[in-house]
Amino acid sequence: MNFRKMIPDDWESVKDIYLQGIATGNATFQKDAPSSEEWDKGHLGFGRIVSVNERNEVTGWCALSAVSSRCVYAGVAEVSVYVSTSNTGKQIGTLLLKQLVAESEANGIWTLQAGIFPENTASIRIHEKEGFRIVGYREKIGQMDGVWRDTLILERRSKSI
Q1: 39, containing H or E segment
Q2: What's the pLDDT tens digit per position in 10-47?
């Protein structure tokens, strides 16, 4: 497995993997993928990483989003990590998150956070493996198909920034 910076030509694969995550019902509150332009505006310019197999096919991706436009939160970002359904269980999510942590610290990010559905135990596990800890629980924070959902808030503080 190789990792590299995401490029515009990766968008269709990134979008497809995001849609696979949406289809699980445990990855995001989103019901559809945004346009590439919307996605681009919603994510930081650094920390966009894809994993690719030996055929150079995108198997997963990760990215960072700002949590606030206020300057005091400039070093705080939210993580997104998605792996194609045909590649789960291969440690790709863990390796992507490890790359994302390094990239975030290289760009001055001191706190990473993630909002994860409690049912998404695999995601919780990989985040905890990379130093995230559960710092909160949001009860009935949003609805999906008329059902209230909870999220866990996980956070990782950099030891070097």
Answers
A1: helix 36-41
A2: 999 999 999 999 999 999 999 999 999 999 999 999 99
Backbone angles phi, psi at 25, to 5 degrees: 75, 0
* CA-to-CA dists, residue 110 to 1, 6, 23, angstroms: 28, 22, 32
**Whole-number Å distance between alpha carbons of 115 and 125:** 13
Tens of pLDDT along 114-160? 999 999 999 999 999 999 999 999 999 999 999 999 999 999 999 99
How far is the CA of 118 from the CAs of 124, 128, 137, 140, 150, in angstroms?
8, 13, 9, 12, 7
Tens digits of residue pLDDT in 83-97: 999 999 999 999 999
Residue 161 near residue 105 (C-beta atoms within 8 A): yes
Identify the band that residue 1 occupies on the pLDDT scale cut at 50, 70 and 90: confident
Per DSSP, the three-state class of 16 is helix
- Give residues with Cβ within 8 angstroms of 81, minimum separation 6: 60, 61, 62, 93, 96, 97, 100, 123, 126
CA-wise closest residue to 101 among 19, 46, 41: 46
Provide the pairing of β-strand 147-157 with 133-144.
antiparallel
